[in-house]
Please model this.
Amino acid sequence: MKKIQLHPCGNFNESYDRELTIFSTDFGRIWAIVGIILLLSVPLMPLSPYLIYVMNITGIAAISVIGLNLLTGFTGQISLGHGAFFGVGAYAGAILATRLNLPIFITIPAAGLITAGVGMIFGVPSGRLKGLYLTIATLAGQFIIEYVLVHWEYMTKGTMGITMPMPVFFGFTIQGDIPFYYIIFPLLALMLWIAVNLIRTRFGRAWIAIRDNDRAAEGMGIPIFPYKVFAFAVSSFYAGFAGALWAYYMGSITTEPFNLSLSVEYLAMVIIGGLGSISGSIFGAVFITVLNELLRFMTDSLMNSAIVTQLGLSLAPLREFFYGVAIVLFILFEPRGLAEVWRIVRSNFRLWPFPY
Amino acid sequence: MDFFLQLLIGGLSVGFVYGLSAMGFVMIFKSSSVLNFAHGELLALGGYFFLIFITVVKLPVILAFIFTLVACFITGILIERVFLRPLIGEKLIFVIMLTVGLAAMFKGIILLIWGGNLYTYPNFLPEAMGFRLGVVSIPPVYVATFGIGIFFLIIFGLFFKFSSQGIYMRSVADNQRAALSLGVNVRRVFALSWAIAALVAGMSGIVLGIINGVNVHDLSALGLKVFPVIILGGLDSIGGAIVGGLIIGLLETFTGGYISPSLRDVVPYIILVLILLIKPYGLFGLKEIERV
Model:
C-alpha cells in the first residue's frame, strides 16, 4: 500500500518526473474519480432536457477550445480562424456521413484528420510570419474557408445546408440529448487526456519553448517550422473533431454559424479560461456558453413578458454587449483567466490557516 | 470600354474610402503597435454621432461635422485612458483580444441605441460638385471623399514630419524604451494617437454614411476590410494605406465586374495571404519585420 501523500507548502520537486505529474497527491486523484462518477450520473438526475442540451454544447465547445489553447496558449500562435476549422470539420463529417454512409465512429476522427490537413495548409504561413502578421493570415483563412463552404455547392450544397443521418452506434440509433451526452462527454474526456499528455511529451515541451522564445528554442535544436505546423494540425484536429460531433448533434448544418464571431468566441473562451491551461479551456467553454444562455434567457423572457415587448426587442444586443464586457474585464483584471482564480482559491484552502 | 471606365471609377472611389478608413488604423499601429479590431465600430460611431448632430440636434452641416470630429477625438482619448493604458507592456494577445472585446461592446451599445436599421443623411452636398467623364458620372460624394482624403494625407504627412508631437509618435513607434528614457511622454503619445485615429475613423464613417447610409453591421464589416488594405500598403505607412486601398478597391470591382460578383468579397483576403507570404512588409512598410 502506497503512502498517501499530502501537499508540501511550496514547490519541493526533486526530479523532473515529479514536476510532470498530473496528480501530485492521491487526494486529487480521488476527486477526479468522484468528478467522473458525478458527470456520468448527471443524466440520471431529474434535470430538464434544456440543461442537458447546454451541457452538451459546452462539452463540444470545450473540445474545440482545448485545440485552440494548444495552438494559442501553448505554442503562442494566435488564430482567428478556429471557427472556420470547426465548420470544416462539421462539413467533412456531414459529407462523409451522407455521401459515403460511413458510421459515426469513422466519420468523426476522419473529419478531424481532414480538418488537420486543412489546418496545416493555413499553418504554412507560420513558417515565415509570427505575431500580428500570423494573426492576420489566420483571419484571411477564416474568410477564405467561409467562402469555400458557401460556394463549393457540389460538396456543401451551399446555403441549403446538409441534413445529417441519425448516427448509429453498434446497432443503437443515437437520438435525443441524453444518448448524445454519453457520446460527447467520454469523447471530451478522451481528448482531454490526449491533450494533457501531449503537453508532457517532447512535442508539448517544444511548443512551450517556441512560445516562450522561438529563437532560443531554435538554438536548442528544435526545428521550429515542423513543430508549428504540427501545432496547427493538432489544433485543427480538435476543431474538426468537435465540429463533426456538433453536426451530428444538431442534425443539420448550414454555413452560417462558422463565421468570424465564432472564432472570436473561441479565442475569448481561451482567454477567459486561461491561456496555456488545459483545465482553463473547460472553464472558458463553460463560462461563455453559460453566459450566452443566460443572456439569451434574459432577453427572451424580457421579450415574452408583454409589457416590455418594445424594450425587450431592443435589449437583444445586450448579449453582444455583455460578451464584450466579459472579455474586457477579464483582460484588465485577471488576464490569466479562471484557471488562475481556481488556483488561488485552491491554494487558499490548501494553505489555510497559513497565509503564504 | 464604358463598362471598364465605370468599373475603374467605381473601384477608385471605393478604394479611396478603404484607404481613408485604413488611415486611422495605421495611426494607431504606427505609434503603439496595436492592431485595432474595433476599427469598424469606431467608423460606425462617427457615422452615428454625425447622425445625431444633423438630425436630432439639427446643427448646420459644417458645425455638425466639427462636433462629430470633436466627439470622436474625445472617445479616442477615453478608450486609451480606460482600456488600453493598463495594458502597456502586456502580451500581444491580450491587447488584440481587448480590442476584439471593445468591438463587441461598442456594437452592442450601438445596436441598443439605434438598432440594426439603415439610416440616411439628408442630402446636403451640392450637385455641382459632381462631374461627368464621358458616359460615367461621378457623384458629388466621391469628389468630396477625394478632397477630404487628400487633405488629411497632406495634414498627416506634415504632422509626422514637422510637428513635435508627430516626431514623438515616430520615436515611440521606433523604440518605446529609448523614447521614454529621452523624456518623451509615451502615455500622451498613445492617447493622442488613439484620439487622432478615432477622429479619422469618425470622418470616414461620415463619408461612408453619405455614400451607403449608416448601418452598424455594414460599417463594422468594413472595419475588417482594412486588414488587406494595410498589409498591402504596409502596416505603418499612411500613404501606403491610400495606395493599398485603391489597389484593393480596383481589384474588388474588377473581379466583381468581370469574373464573379460572389468572388468580390474574398479576393482581398486571398491577396492578403499571398502578400504575407511574398512581401510581408507590404509596398511601403518598414522592412524591419520579424521573420522566423
Observations:
- The two ends of chain A are 32 Å apart (CA to CA).
